[in-house]
From TrEMBL:
This is Peptidase. InterPro entries: SapC. Pfam families: SapC. It comes from the Bacteria. The lineage of its organism: Bacteria, Pseudomonadati, Pseudomonadota, Gammaproteobacteria, Steroidobacterales. It comes from Steroidobacter agaridevorans.
Length: 247
């Protein structure tokens, strides 16, 4: 990765290949999301929580695979889903902090110049001929804006769950169609039993803060684990069929 601050003048000739954007998630089994994505994400993926390996802080993710570096929605050319998370769609752009001595502490737009999306053959440009932001760059800025705006709300939601002790480790013990046992560990989910034990005052507080709807989205999304199991079984069956035909 080679992150640099985007310069409309210095990088005006850069081109982005949009067909490679989703490929960056081909080996991601956990994709970070913000609370503003919960409702859409719940229609496709399980929503889980995991601790950041360095900070130990909880964050929400969509689970897209049952193994490390596995995305069961990746078809080989695209993500076969109706909703692609913001953290995928923003590639190869990032939000950085301006740490220059004479700069105020603010966000700056960065780009990974080593990202496979950055390609001279790409159809998408950064700026128009007159130097103004292209429609594509405006779209990226809107996506990054959602992520930045959603950061605080997401942290507040996590804090609310922790204050009520509603996060608990989950271990998925799965037996696939070929009798292969599979365990997925290191994830946390909503403790539904403790949630049902909350009193009226606590439920009212969750409702007024907008967190109750998010909790329900997480609960609904938990059923998407069966979709992942089905996709895993299908992938194994296709692999075996291909190996059989190759003999």
């Amino acid at each position: 990765m080679r992150l640099v601050e985007l310069s409309r003048s210095e990088h005006r000739e850069l081109r982005i290949r949009g067909d490679r954007v989703e490929a960056c998630a081909a080996s991601q089994h956990l994709i970070p999301i913000v609370v503003g994505e919960f409702r859409k994400a719940a229609t496709q993926y399980p929503i889980v929580f995991a601790k950041h390996p360095e900070t130990g802080r909880f964050a929400p993710y969509v689970l897209s695979g049952l193994g490390v570096a596995e995305n069961l929605f990746w078809s080989g050319t695209e993500l076969d889903v109706s909703y692609v998370p913001l953290n995928v769609r923003r590639q190869p752009f990032y939000v950085g902090m301006d740490d220059a001595p004479d700069a105020s502490a603010g966000n700056v737009l960065c780009i990974d110049l080593d990202h496979p999306c950055v390609d001279s053959a790409g159809a998408r440009s950064i700026v128009n001929a007159d130097g103004t932001d292209s429609a594509y760059l405006k779209e990226i800025l809107a996506i990054l804006g959602e992520l930045v705006a959603g950061k605080t709300a997401t942290e507040q939601f996590i804090a609310a769950l922790l204050s009520l002790d509603l996060l608990a480790p989950i271990v998925l013990d799965i037996v696939l169609d070929d009798a292969t046992p599979l365990q997925v560990q290191g994830l946390y989910g909503l403790d539904e039993e403790k949630f049902r034990q909350l009193d009226a005052t606590q439920i009212d507080s969750l409702w007024r803060s907008g967190h109750l709807d998010l909790i329900y989205a997480v609960m609904i999304a938990s059923g998407q684990i069966f979709k992942l199991i089905r996709l895993k079984n299908q992938r194994i069956a296709l692999s075996r069929a291909w190996q059989g035909n190759a003999r």
